[in-house]
Amino acid sequence: MYVDDRNHLLVYDLASRATSSGAAGFGQTNIYMVETRESPEAGERGFYLPGRVVVDELGPGQKKTVVAAQNQERFSLLNRLRTFTGGEVVGLRWENQELEELWRTERRGVVADFRLARLVPRGEKMLVVGSVMSFGGILANPESRVVVFSTSALRAKR
Is residue 39 part of a domain? Predict the structure, then answer.
């Protein structure tokens, strides 16, 4: 799996051929990277660092689930500044040669990153999401939160 520069989630087969392209909007971040060039005449090439995409079993005996962030972009300015209105983490499954949405978290700000983890020994996997609620401004401080979702509750949403 790979998130391309248009934020499409691409699925590859074992022969490294793209077999599917998911809907746009997965794995967007506002982290802009610039390649270092040997000479200034070569020009500058930059790109947005894609967000995390995880393929994991969320419960015993469960099929593997693709988990990715999906932030809603407000606008992009000069290919260097992206702003988002909010975002969710989405669970997808590869079914009948396409990605099928299984669940999505509540919108709780812009998804900065997420992680699947067992927070207690032998406990169920939890989805831990770091979200930016507001980016602040000249007179305000940014606000962020860490929200924990039960993966069994997310699976039950279906």
Answer: no
In this predicted structure, the answer to whether residue 9 has a pLDDT above a threshold of 90 is no
Question: Residue 83's domain spans which residues?
Answer: 52-156
Q: Are 80 and 31 in contact (CB under 8 A)?
A: no
In a domain, 142, yes or no: yes
Q: In the chain, how many domains are there?
A: 1
- Read off the tokens for 147: 């929200």
| pLDDT, tens only, 118-155 | 999 988 999 999 999 887 777 778 789 999 999 988 88
CB 68 within 8 A of CB 53: yes
pLDDT the model gives residue 111:
93
pLDDT of residue 157: 72
Phi/psi-derived region of residue 76, left when phi > 0, alpha when psi is between -120 and 50, beta in every other case: beta
Distance CA 158, CA 145 (A): 26
33 within some domain: no
Tens of pLDDT, residue by residue over 37-57, are 777 776 777 777 888 889 898
Does residue 130 sit within a domain?
A: yes
DSSP symbol at 40: G
Q: What is the DSSP letter of 96?
A: T
DSSP three-state, residue 112: strand
3-state DSSP call for residue 119?
coil
